[in-house]
Amino acid sequence: MTEQADWSGKAVLVSGGARGQGLSHALAFARRGADVVLLDAPAPLATVPYPVSTEEELEAARVTVSEAGGTEVLAYAADVRDPEAVRVAIDHAASRLGGIDVTIANAGVFSFARTTWELSPQEWRECSDTILLGSWAVARAAIPHMLGRAGANLVFIGSVSAHKGIAATGHYVAAKHGVVGLMRTLAVELAPHGIRANMVSPTAARTLMATNPAMAKCVEYQVAGGTNMSNLLDVELLEPEDVTEAVLWITSPGARYVTGDVLKVDAGFTAR
Ligand SMILES: NC(=O)c1ccc[n+]([C@@H]2O[C@H](COP(=O)([O-])OP(=O)(O)OC[C@H]3O[C@@H](n4cnc5c(N)ncnc54)[C@H](O)[C@@H]3O)[C@@H](O)[C@H]2O)c1
């Protein structure tokens, strides 16, 4: 067994790090000594039925993560749908920290319609651009700062929606499936550089994305009573920290020969 990784002297970038799972990941790395870069506070997303994080919330997260680790914690208001803004932020962070060791492409939004053919183009774009274009934008900006750094790796936060069809959410499902292809391609391209790329795919977790009141409607829109929509294990919502456990392992030296792979933390959701 590899001992718990010591992340001191390493820089960890988390998109969507102001709250929820991203904040949990950021806190865990800070507690283990890492420098942390948070990217969040996007431009308005009119079709998302719950609020995304504000600049004030991002700043509060920066303070919380700083207090947890005593390392350098940088926060940037940047919308992952804007690849140039993401590049400017990540270039700045990398110049401050000397490079990036771990990139966690975590920012995401969720919306739904009664059926996928009733989604509006704006619903499609806002969700898909955040998840798919945004994951690429974060990777695109971070990778040049990861080259040549021993143990560097990327993690894309997927979902059960990256691995099966789920009614009312074809844009989210398609975008998450797309991130699987992006992750696998980067694993191929980055292997000669000794850099790994993987995905961690959670089932529903206790964050605003899943606990906001609009979700009840999405559950109602599931076909056949949502029979393909449950965890096998007796848990309704994961805690963000359950996902962080998987992120910590897959980014650690203990997973040094794991690349192009998916680690599901889905309580068996996708097993049937
Ligand atoms: N919560 C769940 O049930 C669940 C299940 C499976 C997968 N996921 C995935 O987990 C990841 C984290 O989500 P969460 O559960 O912590 O939700 P969350 O809504 O609490 O956090 C998402 C964060 O991403 C930020 N964000 C959204 N769009 C952005 C953009 N365009 N640019 C920059 N930042 C943006 C938000 O401001 C927010 O801080 C997402 O990729 C999501 O798809 C969530």
UniProtKB/TrEMBL annotation:
Pfam families: adh_short_C2. Signal peptide: none annotated. Keywords: Oxidoreductase. Belongs to the short-chain dehydrogenases/reductases (SDR) family. GO terms for molecular function: oxidoreductase activity. The keyword Oxidoreductase applies. This is Mycofactocin-coupled SDR family oxidoreductase. It comes from the Bacteria. InterPro entries: NAD(P)-bd_dom_sf (IPR036291), Sc_DH/Rdtase_CS (IPR020904), SDR_fam (IPR002347). Gene3D superfamilies: NAD(P)-binding Rossmann-like Domain.
